[in-house]
Amino acid sequence: MKQAGLFDAGGTRILLDDVSGKITLTPDLIDAQTAARWFRALHDGIVWKSGRRVMYEREVDVPRLRAHFRTDDPALPDVLQQALGRVRAAFGAPFDSIGLNLYRDQHDSVAPHNDKLADIIRGQPIVLLSLGATRTMTIRGKQPPRHVLRVDLDAGSALLMSWETQLHYDHAILKQRAPIGPRISLAFRVREAGKTGDGS
Ligand SMILES: O=C(O)CCC(=O)C(=O)O
Ligand SMILES: [Fe+2]
Question: Which part of the chain is the Fe2OG dioxygenase domain (predicted)?
């Protein structure tokens, strides 16, 4: 990974920009007060779902809560409508799917994975908007030397991962020892028409 730490004109940090794709972090896409308000509204207002998944041949709880909306859903919460407007304007992609993750505390996590490309329109990026407590994302190359990038995702920040990066890197939010409050992420994606999965 090269060029970590460069900034573009808008204050966006370019964490990666090479043949393997592009990853950028925009620190203050949403101001702190708005981010706090959105966090509260979503935390209290969304019907959060726990999931089960098979791991090591046992069924276990997905270690976080989730929700999903298509953007044309008449029941799209107002906060998500506003967030969609901001993210579409900032990144210029026709996002039509919003996956929500709630990490209740330091024990919640998402295991290393790449987002499923089968149901994302080829070439379209994924944007993760963070609200609430700061968690660290670990982004690791799939191939040796498996370089690792650690990015603190503060409230109001937006991390963009280009489509190609999902072929070459896994990303994760690992459990941590230090106690931490809840964090919500909004994952904006451009899906094939008709696909509704919340697939990460
Ligand atoms: O919470 C995050 O920022 C990452 C979530 C994620 O990787 C996913 O939903 O696929
Ligand atoms: Fe993901």
Answer: 94-192
pLDDT in tens, 89-98: 999 999 999 9
Ligand 1 neighbourhood includes 16 CB (under 6 angstroms): no
Tell which atom from ligand 1 comes closest to the C-alpha of 128: 3
Give the Cα separation of 122 and 68 in Å (integer). Answer: 21
* DSSP labels, 43-106: HHHS--B--EEEETTEEEE-SSEEEEEETT-TT--HHHHHHHHHHHHHH-----EEEEEEE-ST
In this structure, the number of other CB atoms found within 10 A of the CB of residue 9 comes to: 5
Residue 60 lies in a domain: yes
Name the residue range of residue 136's domain. 11-189
Q: Is 94 inside a domain boundary?
A: yes
- Domain of 18, CATH number, reads 2.60.120.590
The number of domains in the chain is 1
Q: Which of 18-22, 30-34, 51-55, 137-141 has the lowest mean pLDDT?
A: 51-55
The pair of structure tokens assigned to 84 is 């969609």
pTM for the whole thing? 0.92
Q: Please give the distance, rounded to the nearest whole angstrom, from the Cα atom of residue 11 to the centre of ligand 1.
A: 23
CB-based contact 167:123 (threshold 8 Å): no
| DSSP code of residue 191 | B
Average pLDDT of the chain to the nearest whole number? 92
